[in-house]
Amino acid sequence: MSDITLALDVMGGDFGPRVTIPALAKALNQNPTLSFLLFGDENQITPLLKKYSLTNHPKIQIQHTEQIIESDVPFSTAVRQSKNSSMRLALEAVKEGKAQGCISGGNTGALMGLAKLLIAPLPNIERPALTSLIPTMNGQSTVMLDLGANIDVSNHQLVQFTEMGNIFAEIMLGLVYPRLSLLNIGTEENKGTTQLKEVHQYLKTRLDLNYIGFIESDKLTSYLTDVIICDGYTGNIALKALEGAAKNIISLFKKEKADSNICRSAKSYLLKAIFYRYYRKLQEINPDRHNGATLLGLSKVVVKSHGGANANAFYYAIDYAIQQIENDIPNKISQGLSQLDKK
């Protein structure tokens, strides 16, 4: 791996340095050529670096700041309060070319808004889309966008999300002619909003894209498609419902297992007998490995980690950023869209 420098918002997320520093330690152990620019409270960072034997490490630089953006403030307030914050300084390091990517688990709206203000979008991209890989029941991944960056979108923007998602899937998943679907309340031609039906009809005419039609939210993990396209409002609700359902089902089995009551034990046995195959599949899906969503459509890599991520999950967000930098995702998205414009 060639040398890569990452800007880390150390204070972002629910646990700040207690998660970001051990994740950084694991990343350095796995990738010795990595370098990190750390932005946050040096008084909190230094003891943890010492704990992981990283004091005065040549690949780590710290820029001290006590300013953070709170997780619950609205975007307009966050922007006004962002000067000298760990998040803004990390993004500015990317803007100035000091780092090739930024990772933060902080306020989602602030990160997206500041990233769009500070980092240039790709040519002709109207809005970047929050994009992630979601696990499926057969062990493969599906690209999904937008997951919350854009609540209201135009038809043209949905088409741009489709084009970017197509290129992203080709590169990140190694696919040729990825299957593309619009998220809708049904698969029939007459279902959905006027906007979805119009975009659906247009995408059917695009012979350069492998558009296969609508997909419903109960099929998100069925691997019936490679890219799922939606507006940020719909995508965010669908993703959180999926995450919540998976966590609740797994916790249900664990709760039943821990209960010594004979009736509950019998109930647990019956549940596992009926749903054993699906339960095993859920266990095999490691949610930590799919932590991290990227703002696709920017000229640099910006990855949003889940605010409640543990150290292992944050490590995978770092790794997700590394993969995109190594694959030169922003430039390849730009090149791919440029070729489409010439057709």
From TrEMBL:
Pathway: Lipid metabolism; phospholipid metabolism. Pfam families: FA_synthesis. It comes from the Bacteria. SUPFAM superfamilies: Isocitrate/Isopropylmalate dehydrogenase-like. Its EC number is 2.3.1.274. Keywords: Acyltransferase, Cytoplasm, Lipid biosynthesis, Lipid metabolism, Phospholipid biosynthesis, Phospholipid metabolism, Transferase. InterPro entries: FA_synthesis (IPR003664), Phospholipid_synth_PlsX-like (IPR012281). It catalyses: a fatty acyl-[ACP] + phosphate = an acyl phosphate + holo-[ACP]. Its main location: cytoplasm. One of its GO terms (molecular function) is phosphate:acyl-[acyl carrier protein] acyltransferase activity. Homodimer. Probably interacts with PlsY. Belongs to the PlsX family. Catalyzes the reversible formation of acyl-phosphate (acyl-PO(4)) from acyl-[acyl-carrier-protein] (acyl-ACP). This enzyme utilizes acyl-ACP as fatty acyl donor, but not acyl-CoA. This is Phosphate acyltransferase. It comes from Mannheimia cairinae. The gene is plsX.
